[in-house]
Amino acid sequence: TRFAGILTMPNNFAAQERSSWRGLGLWNVYFIAKLMLYGAGYLNFHTFYNLVFAAVLLMPLPPLWLHRLRHIIAIPVGVALLYYDSWLPPFQRLLDQPEVLQFSGPYLLELLNRFINWNMLGAGLLLFVACLFLQQWVRVTVFSVTALLLVSLPDHLSVRHVAMYFAANPTAMDVQAQPTPAANGTDSDGVAASPKSITDILNDELAAFYAAEAERRTVFAPTSQAELDFDIIFLNICSVAWSDLASVQLDQHPLLKSMDVVFDEFNAATSYSGPAVRRLLRASCGQTSHEDLYDAAPSECYLFEHLNQSGFQTAALLNHNGQFQDFISDITQHESLPAPAVPQKLSPRWTAFDGSPIWGDYDALNDWWQAHTPSDGPRALLYNSITLHDGNREATADGGGRSSPYASRGQAVLDDLLRFIQQLENSGRRVLVVLIPEHGAALEGDLMQISGMREIPTPEIAHVPVGLKLIGHAASAGGEAGNGETAGAGEMGPAPYRISGPTSYLALSELLARILRTPVFNTSAIDWDALTDDLPHTRAVSENSGTVMMEHNGAPYVRMGDRDWIQYRR
After folding, report:
1. Cys-Cys with 431: which of 127, 157, 289, 471 at CB 3.0–4.6 Å?
2. pLDDT single digits (tens) 483-523
């Protein structure tokens, strides 16, 4: 009997061990859901961390209480891993922006509703019930672990095989960073060099881009006071991109057709207001990184410094109080601009996303215009409007607000700006109007960002309509830069002269410098071909704090925080 007991001990031990392998349980729903979201493009998937997490959950723990305690402790870990796998910004970004606590209650509810995808919640419920049902007969854990291993296989293939695969299939780049062939790769011994990863390639391209941009400048020639017989008004409008206007059928608004010149491929290089106005103010130098925007720059970089030295009286005007995220400090970062004026005596037309007042665009501009006379001399105004910012509402008589969709506010803003331009035309004063939005509103969400979210500065957000209009000059515009074709007439006269090619703030600064040294208001016809010839092109690179977006071989890539570059999914 004793001998028989000894023989059966291993079998009992094995049975005990088998009973300790309890599987993933309801965590199967977690992993299966993440894999499905990953396959659909709604989620990134860091295979190594997910495999480690699954291994910790699977590791046998004989005491049942310890097994249950592990599941409880794993809940916050699973939530953190899900956040890390998502396209949401690094959590540190939220800690760095305490201003989100200032959002109004209605706006917070609106954002919460955008984050909730009821179809996905319904699919998740079906998946949950299916797993509970199948676990009666099937070890669902086997399928979950198998799927995790299959997804992780590409990360463990040799570099040589991956490089050969993508060399033969250049369009088969996966969402995760994969090795790609190095260009002309041989080392000092004549041996083929190891292929660079896409992250290394894009990091090198980004460093080369900023190094080249650091050498570029706009030269403003000295201008006599007699030549400055006109004003310059910059209409710096928040949340207007070509994609936004097209989505609400406002891309053919008469305001855009009334422009003399339109930049077709202007890149705002960011998707937030503070960095956008800083980039505009530094338009006379090449594009810098986001971090460098908050360091001092040479005086020749500041556009309004050049205008000031040319004889313009510089000023700034807001249709909001400028307190959110201390926006006023972005305007006054350099002594070339005084503290912006705020038309507080007017009745607010809108209520901002943080509950602060917003004045009507025409009301604010007209109030500033009426307070000055031509005898004041040439003026250069930077007007900033946030009427179209996400979450704004129409002001009501009781001090509150009611819902106002983007389409209605967009129509109101464009109509107000057009009305103001028509007032300038009737005044007899010569004015150069520069329409330059800050960034887009992200009205149309995609796989990686919900509607209204602008953490990743995608081309749809950074591609903004920029135009110039000369008021007080009878010359007409026409044609397209570089091809000499004549454009058809628009609703308000000749169609704008189109400037093609990738451009940004440096091209705008260069065009303004050419206009200042050319008596455009005193000529019978404006030679736009000469004024726009060989304007500096700028690669479409956009950046926010910790997030960079640019194209490589025609495909968009994004780098968030210290993570690898990944191909952006729309």
Report:
1. 471
2. 434 343 334 567 899 999 999 999 999 999 999 988 888 87
In this structure, what token pair is assigned to residue 554?
A: 């025609």
Beta-ladder partners of 494: 489
Closest CA to 496 of 252, 272, 177: 252
Residue range 172-219, pLDDT digits in tens: 444 444 444 444 444 444 445 557 789 999 999 999 999 999 999 999
Written as one letter, the residue type at 280 is L
CB 364 within 8 A of CB 214: no
Helix 505-516 and helix 303-310, axial crossing angle in degrees, nearest 10 = 10
The encoded tokens of residue 77 equal 């870990």
Coil, helix or strand for 4? Answer: helix
Q: For residue 99, is it left (φ>0), alpha (ψ between -120 and 50) or beta?
A: alpha
Distance CA 570, CA 567 (A): 10
Structure tokens at 24: 């993933």
Contact of 213 with 538, CB cutoff 8 Å: yes
Whole-angstrom distance, CA of residue 137 vs CA of residue 124: 21
Long-range contacts of 140-145 (CB under 8 A, 24+ apart): 140/23, 140/24, 140/28, 141/23, 141/24, 141/25, 141/28, 141/58, 144/24, 144/27, 144/28, 144/31, 144/32, 144/54, 145/24, 145/54, 145/58
Q: Is 436 exposed, middle or buried (0-12, 13-18, 19+ CB in 10 A)?
A: buried
* Nearest-10 crossing angle of helices 64-85, 47-58: 170
Q: How many Å apart are CA 485 and CA 124, to the nearest integer? A: 55
φ/ψ (deg, to 5) at 254: -55, -25
Is residue 477 pLDDT above 60, yes or no?
A: no
Helix (H, G, I), strand (E, B) or coil at 565: coil
Reduced to 3 states (helix: H, G, I; strand: E, B; else coil), residue 385 is strand
Q: In what order do the strands lie in the sheet with 350-351?
A: 357-358, 350-351, 393-395, 401-403
The top-scoring range by mean pLDDT among 187-191, 219-223, 300-304, 565-569 is 300-304
CA dist 221 and 218 (Å) reads: 10
Strand 431-435 with 350-351, pairing: unpaired
pTM of the model: 0.81
Question: Is the separation of the CB atoms in 442 and 449 below 8 Å?
Answer: yes
Structure tokens at 268: 């705002």
Q: Which two tokens stand for residue 531?
A: 């004024």
Q: What angle do CA 259, 260, 261 make, to 5 degrees?
A: 95
Q: Tell me the one-letter amino acid at 499.
A: I
String of DSSP letters for 151-208: HHHHHHS-HHHHHHHHHH-TT---SS--B-PPTT-B-TTSPBPPPPBHHHHHHHHHHH
**Which amino acid is located at 283 in the chain?**
A
pLDDT in tens, 306-347: 999 998 999 999 999 988 888 898 888 877 788 999 987 889
